[in-house]
């Protein structure tokens, strides 16, 4: 009976956490370059095993499983749809790679959100004012009033000046850690994407990879699973109450 209560409680907690992840995805359905999160469920040991009162593989009633839990959340780095905006400061990467952003204190942040803008000093910055970096790790500064363009290889041309955008990729996608503002920090070294392998689209934005219909279906599924676990908790609690009442009446 107690194992059942623990399993149902952990199941409800896991589904509640899953709904939080899905809600976060839905809240960013219109955020350029956003990558959806996935809640990864895994089997959970019983409470007795977790507390060290028994061990896995013992064959006892404590080794029957303890329900499910959220093991981790993973990021789906699949390509989002590209939308033409016509704005020269909107940039999108088609294929592999991330833009490099100055995170301050010599920190380099990565993002797929290319909804950039020029500040009053002619520096290309993010929506939060962080400078976009060139291949030389310097802020990209353009002369006000002069025309400029961005090639598919990520090179910004203004008159005789050519400024290659920094476009890099990590050794493994699992090396990227969320830093907020739709940015990531690489916990290992990154590698520049070769100019011949780049595909930077000027006047385009990569949209969020969130598909509202899919997320809503998963939200309904998680909500129903949460409600089922809560009903199981209530049912088991009533059974325990009835059992105690019988014992007390017979004593």
Structure characterization notes:
- The longest helix is centred in the C-terminal third of the chain and has 39 residues, at 212-250.
- The protein has a four-stranded antiparallel β-sheet with strand order 6-5-12-15, with no helix packed on it. Strands 9-10-11 form a three-stranded antiparallel β-sheet, with no helix packed on it.
- The relative contact order is 0.19.
- Strand 9 (149-150) and strand 10 form a beta hairpin.
- It has helices at 2-27, 47-50, 212-250; strands at 37-43, 68-75, 82-84, 91-93, 98-104, 107-111, 117-118, 124-125, 149-150, 155-158, 161-164, 167-170, 176-180, 183-186, 190-192, 200-202, 204-206.
- The chain is elongated.
- The model has no long low-confidence stretch (mean pLDDT 89).
- Helices cover 27% and strands 27% of the residues.
- It is an alpha+beta fold.
Features:
elongated; four-stranded antiparallel sheet; alpha+beta; 251 residues
């Amino acid at each position: 009976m107690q194992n059942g209560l623990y399993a149902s409680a952990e199941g409800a907690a896991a589904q509640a956490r899953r709904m939080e992840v899905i809600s976060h995805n839905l809240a960013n359905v219109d955020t350029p370059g956003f990558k959806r999160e996935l809640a990864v469920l895994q089997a959970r040991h019983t409470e007795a095993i977790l507390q060290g009162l028994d061990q896995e593989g013992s064959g006892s009633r404590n080794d029957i499983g303890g329900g499910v839990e959220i093991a981790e959340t993973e990021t789906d780095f699949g390509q989002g749809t590209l939308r033409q905006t016509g704005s020269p400061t909107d940039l999108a990467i088609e294929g592999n790679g991330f833009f490099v952003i100055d995170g301050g204190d010599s920190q380099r942040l990565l993002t797929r959100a290319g909804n950039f803008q020029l500040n009053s000093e002619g520096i290309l910055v993010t929506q939060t004012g962080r400078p976009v970096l060139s291949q030389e790790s310097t802020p990209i500064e353009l002369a006000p009033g002069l025309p400029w363009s961005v090639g598919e290889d990520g090179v910004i041309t203004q008159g005789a000046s050519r400024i290659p955008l920094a476009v890099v990729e990590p050794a493994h996608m699992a090396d990227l850690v969320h830093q907020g503002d739709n940015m990531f920090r690489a916990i290992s070294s990154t590698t520049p994407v070769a100019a011949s392998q780049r595909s930077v689209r000027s006047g385009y934005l990569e949209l969020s990879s969130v598909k509202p219909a899919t997320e809503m279906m998963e939200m309904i599924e998680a909500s129903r699973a949460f409600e089922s676990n809560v009903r199981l908790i209530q049912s088991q609690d009533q059974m325990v109450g009835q059992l105690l009442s019988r014992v007390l009446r017979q004593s």
